[in-house]
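Pilot study result, target chain (311 residues):
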Amino acid sequence: MTEDIPSSIDETHAVLGRAGYVADRSLATVLYLSLKMQRPLFLEGEAGVGKTEIAKVLSAQLGRPLIRLQCYEGLDIAAAVYEWNYAAQMLEIRMAEAVGAADKSSIAKSVFDERFLIKRPLLQALESAGAAAPVLLIDELDRADEAFEAYLLEILSDFQITIPELGTIKADHPPIVIITTNRTREIHDALKRRCLYHWVGYPDAVRELQIISNRVPGANERLSREIVAFVQRLRRDADLFKNPGVAETIDWATALTELDREALDLETVSDTLGVLLKYQDDIEAVHGERTAHILEDIKSGSGSGDANDVR
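Predicted structure:
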């Protein structure tokens, strides 16, 4: 069942909350404005902080289909927008020739019919049937090439696509567009101008504890507090190549809960660092004495961001 878009910032915040997504008010505000103004929302931030999840939550909570375009190097129009079914077109030409059809212009017109058009995610989002438009997620745009980024400008400004053989296809109901980037490269200002912008950062300790409570309800309270304190300390002081994101925090809490742990200890942390950290250099930098020192601080309650600070 399709739900109406939220009518206020508080209602938007509640929509996210019903799905267990712990958002601050600034995110709820820009999301509300994006929905009301029918403007794409450009979300930037480190990998694993929950950018993609926002599109999934909107799709589920508003009862709208999610159409996802996962970007990658070399992504082109044929994979993202449309392409012609060349095999079927050739068969149509052969059949026309077999029955003696000689009008080339008529044949050309028939093979460039919508019957032979293969619709990819962007075109699907604009032509989606039904009373409510879908949620279009353009995920990790920074992985795509700049040429593809430029192609998006017409779609994001006018919600339309021009196909030379068919003309311009415009959305009757503009989709809800969420664009994410991990900032591995800068996105051009021309694209950003067509969007509302929000930086999704790492949560503070209180919000991260609430996230664990929502996503890993079986986690022991003491364990959850110590996990959050440990992760917050790594992000603040460890100078890692890749800080653990919220996704890694959730994975670690889930893993330790599966191991029936009720608190952190040196052996358990050492054995499970690969759940939390994804680079061997980072694991080596944290492993051993440094882990022991962080755990000692957490257990003793010394320093900021320790387990006792997370209430």
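One observation from the pilot: The two ends are 38 Å apart (CA to CA). A full batch analysis is planned for the follow-on phase.
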